């Protein structure tokens, strides 16, 4: 759109004034900044009418040329902006050309030249300070940001015993800097994107050039840039909009708030997606087995990590099928239990008024409610809920003869088992799938449980995350990669990155380094022999 | 010829509808065989007897689950009341008796958990094939449950109330496993069906262990020996131990050995191995039986001092003679009754399969009385079984 047309629209047609007051950033694409400062002031004032936090500061340069500084109150570092303005108004003198000002007058490390309103406003709304000078069709954006942000804390969702204690925060630049500190290499690339008509959320796609499959990066950036939505308030929005299968209960992108986890994923040839305003960083492609691993697995001794992995796999199965199996066995397959155990269960169930399936539903739903209540309530009240839950649902219900004691054991084992899954969103899928399995068990017994499990496994096998089968490297089998899935092999044996991701430069240990070391040794030997 | 593109792909919605219909048909079957554990009477043990008029009496032992100590039953356990009850019914067939039983029982009788089947002596003497037909006709019945014989009525054994276990069925199972040669339903069927092998079953009886006590214990009394499926003789406990040397697994047991007229040694026989070599000489079958046993001295009431090697040799010789003796009892009994609980015919069949088929298989019982045998017994005392000499006696070395 031509600048004059745009202005005329604004001046001559009253209706279009309204439009100017409610237009989004993308519509300002290519609208140039006017050399006439008063025009700019007029546009900005109308555009930001009723915006009490938007400040237009008019001032004169030392050589009496008019200029304005525009910024959002609270997003800037006031002291440093004052310093910058001081040098403009008092200290420096010379030409009023923006390029000259930028290179000679302003002692600010981050300055961008902006040519249109979109660039200017995007910068200002993100916390920069915009400077417009009479007679210039370009503006300056000073990157002196000072918005309030949370300090770096221990990530609460993924705590570890051994490992770094820092977690991402809501500020995307802080987050990318934390990643950069882990991987100090020019190969760490961070592509910047903006998503959301109203939120204009900054999104950064990070990857390691030379390791990642370039097609994967293209696919990720393509899918993100395709998004048309008003706002991205959390990485969950983005996850939902770029995943392969919307209707699956299984998460197809993993999130992490740990810089070390993200760095590890990049080193395996994955792509990280940072979203401004959330500490959760998405990792793609994701396989199911990633969800069963904690970052600590790679820090602890390999025997312990292997043991813990097997424990998690066992408890994954337990959390999925225990209630269903209990229902199936006690209502259809009593012959499968040892006699004495069966008699104990029969004795405990003697006075229970409900069939096993009703009993299990009562308990499971009560347990889920307790868990939900414990998460939502303020921490001080949360404790009361857990005491109430343990007393009322556990002991009280058993003593009143409403549910049987074995059922309480089944439900608590299931609950504990679901907590052993390191990633919360995978645990949610398992929690949900328990219920259809219980119904199948109540209708068809163990046959039903098996059919249900087959359907689940079949679904998982058909899932893909950015083209990578969800169950790889188990299905399709990729034998070499099993040593970081079935077991956690010692680090010296994990020579190659996972092969199923289609990466370049697969060697993780040795390779260049060893070859170089050998060469220099040989050179030294040659030199010695020459000396002789 | 089919034109490309003329073939319409199946629309997704149709596939979806079909799968929903398939799923619904699965649900339509409902829960037809669903049974909650509080609607089931678990049969812990059952007994089958033959009544005087040729009818069968089926008795079942069912635990009273509510008195087993659920959360609502205060105290729990068997304070005063019995924790089970025994009911029986008579019918021309066992299934008829079962029907009568079920018609007065509010819970479904469930046979997948019985630990033992008790057969009355009278029934066993008349043959087991007919009464045990029912066992293989229902998948509920377990072929791994143990079978025992009782003198008199099986029901008396069921109603016994042993002190240690909650049910006599449970007590019987533990005893069968530990003190007798266990025979499961499957073993029994195999023994009855093979030519050259006859079944035997442990015998149990209820005994009043305390004159005034209200409890009745169950006790292993010996072994019942069969010819085909009919019981022919009940051997006493001490007469039947010879059979143990011919089983797959040797169950350790204790044996008393007479040293001379009034001196006794008690031994625990830990292991026994047997090698039988049949030789056919001029149409007669001769068995070379080699026994190897290792024993532990558990009690010494003699003047022998086992620090002395000669005493050990003497003792081992006596034990070995005693074992030979036990084997002889079984063999002689076998010859006398034409029944073969050891499976001598099977041994012959394995060593001389052709001769067995052509000559002996069909007339093995008539051949049995004519067999001859030699027994070579070797005994090794692996453990004298004491840390010091008898502390009540003077040390002979001083």
UniProtKB/TrEMBL annotation, chain A:
| InterPro entries xrefs | Spore_Ger, UPF0353/GerABKA_families
One Gene Ontology biological process? spore germination
What is one GO cellular-component annotation here? membrane
Keywords (A to Z) from UniProt: Membrane, Transmembrane, Transmembrane helix
Question: So which domain of life are we looking at?
Answer: Bacteria
The UniProt transmembrane annotation reads: 271-292, 313-332, 382-402, 408-430, 437-461
Give one Pfam family, short name only. GerA
**Protein family:** Belongs to the GerABKA family.
Protein name, entry field: Spore germination protein
Write down the species: Brevibacillus invocatus
> What is the phylogenetic placement of the source species in the record?
Bacteria, Bacillati, Bacillota, Bacilli, Bacillales
């Amino acid at each position: 759109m031509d600048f004059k047309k745009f202005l005329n629209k604004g001046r001559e047609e009253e209706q279009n004034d309204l439009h100017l007051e409610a237009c989004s950033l993308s519509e300002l694409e290519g609208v140039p900044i006017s050399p006439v400062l008063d025009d700019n002031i007029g546009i900005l004032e109308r555009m930001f009418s009723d915006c009490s936090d938007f400040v237009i500061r008019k001032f004169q340069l030392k050589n009496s040329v008019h200029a304005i500084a525009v910024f959002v109150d609270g997003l800037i570092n006031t002291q440093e902006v004052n310093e910058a303005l001081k040098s403009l108004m008092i200290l420096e003198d010379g030409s009023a050309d923006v390029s000259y000002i930028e290179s000679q007058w302003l002692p600010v490390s981050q300055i961008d030249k902006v040519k249109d309103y979109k660039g200017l406003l995007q910068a200002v709304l993100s916390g920069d300070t915009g400077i417009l000078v009479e007679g210039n069709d370009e503006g300056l954006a000073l990157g002196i940001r000072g918005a309030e942000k949370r300090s770096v804390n221990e990530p609460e969702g993924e705590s570890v015993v051994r490992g770094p204690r820092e977690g991402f925060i809501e500020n995307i630049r802080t987050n990318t800097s934390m990643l950069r500190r882990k991987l100090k290499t020019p190969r760490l690339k961070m592509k910047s994107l903006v998503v959301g008509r109203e939120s204009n959320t900054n999104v950064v796609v990070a990857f390691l050039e030379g390791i990642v499959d370039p097609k994967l990066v293209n696919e990720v950036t393509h899918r993100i840039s395709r998004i048309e939505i008003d706002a991205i308030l959390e990485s969950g929005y983005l996850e939902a909009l770029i995943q392969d299968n919307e209707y699956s209960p299984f998460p197809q992108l993993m999130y992490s708030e740990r810089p070390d986890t993200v760095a590890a994923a990049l080193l395996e040839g994955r792509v990280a997606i940072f979203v401004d305003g959330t500490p959760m960083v998405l990792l793609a492609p994701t396989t199911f087995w990633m969800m069963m691993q904690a970052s600590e697995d790679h820090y602890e001794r390999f025997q312990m990590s292997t043991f813990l992995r097997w424990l998690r796999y066992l408890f994954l199965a337990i959390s999925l099928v225990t209630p269903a199996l209990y229902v199936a066995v006690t209502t259809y397959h009593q012959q499968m239990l040892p006699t004495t155990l069966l008699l104990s269960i029969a004795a405990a169930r003697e006075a229970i008024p409900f069939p096993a399936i009703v009993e299990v539903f009562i308990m499971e739903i009560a347990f889920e409610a307790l868990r939900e209540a414990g998460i939502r309530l303020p921490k001080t009240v949360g404790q009361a809920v857990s005491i109430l839950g343990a007393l009322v649902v556990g002991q009280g219900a058993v003593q009143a003869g409403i549910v049987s004691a074995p059922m309480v054991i089944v439900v608590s084992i299931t609950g504990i088992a679901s907590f052993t899954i390191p990633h919360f969103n995978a645990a949610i899928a398992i929690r949900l799938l328990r219920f259809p399995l219980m119904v199948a068990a109540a209708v068809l017994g163990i046959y039903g449980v098996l059919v249900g499990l087959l359907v689940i496994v079949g679904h998982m096998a058909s899932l893909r995350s950015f083209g990578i089968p969800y169950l790889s490297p188990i299905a399709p089998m990729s034998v070499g990669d099993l040593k970081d899935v079935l077991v956690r092999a010692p680090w010296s044996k994990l020579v190659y990155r996972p092969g199923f991701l289609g990466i370049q430069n697969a060697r993780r240990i040795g390779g260049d380094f060893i070859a170089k070391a050998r060469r220099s040794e040989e050179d030294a030997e040659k030199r010695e022999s020459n000396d002789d | 010829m089919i034109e490309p593109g003329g073939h319409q792909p199946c629309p997704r919605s149709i596939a979806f509808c079909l799968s929903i219909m398939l799923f619904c048909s699965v649900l339509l079957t409902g829960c037809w065989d669903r049974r909650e554990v509080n609607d089931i009477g678990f049969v812990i043990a059952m007994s089958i007897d033959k009544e005087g008029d040729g009818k069968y009496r089926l008795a079942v032992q069912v635990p009273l689950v509510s008195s087993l100590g659920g959360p609502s039953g205060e105290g729990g356990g068997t304070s005063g009341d019995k924790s089970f009850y025994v009911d029986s019914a008579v019918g021309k067939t066992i299934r008829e008796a079962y029907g009568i039983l079920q018609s007065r029982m509010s819970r479904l009788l469930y046979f997948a958990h019985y630990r033992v089947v008790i057969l009355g002596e009278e029934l066993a003497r008349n043959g087991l094939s007919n009464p045990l037909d029912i066992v293989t006709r229902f998948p509920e019945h377990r072929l791994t449950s143990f079978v025992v014989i009782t003198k008199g009525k099986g029901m008396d054994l069921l109603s016994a109330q042993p002190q240690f276990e909650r049910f006599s069925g449970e007590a019987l199972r533990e005893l069968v496993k530990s003190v007798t040669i266990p025979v499961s339903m499957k073993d029994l069927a195999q023994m009855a069906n093979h030519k050259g092998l006859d079944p035997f079953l442990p015998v149990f009886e209820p005994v009043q262990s305390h004159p005034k006590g209200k409890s009745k214990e169950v006790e292993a009394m010996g072994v019942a020996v069969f010819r085909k499926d009919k019981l022919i003789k009940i051997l006493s406990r001490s007469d039947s131990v010879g059979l143990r040397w011919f089983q797959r697994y040797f169950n350790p047991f204790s044996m008393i050995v007479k040293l001379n007229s009034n001196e006794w040694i008690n031994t625990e026989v830990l292991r026994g191995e047997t090698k039988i070599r049949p030789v056919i000489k001029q149409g007669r079958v001769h068995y070379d039986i080699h026994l190897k046993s290792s024993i532990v001295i558990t009690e010494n009431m003699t003047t022998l001092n086992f620090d002395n090697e000669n005493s050990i040799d003497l003792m081992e010789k006596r034990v070995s003679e005693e074992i030979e003796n036990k084997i002889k009892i079984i063999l002689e009994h076998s010859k006398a009754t034409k029944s073969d609980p050891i499976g001598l015919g099977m041994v012959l069949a394995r060593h001389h399969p052709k001769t067995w088929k052509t000559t002996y298989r069909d007339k093995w019982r008539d051949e049995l009385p004519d067999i001859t045998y030699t027994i070579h017994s070797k005994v090794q005392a692996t453990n004298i079984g004491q840390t010091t000499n008898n502390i009540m006696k003077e040390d002979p070395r001083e």
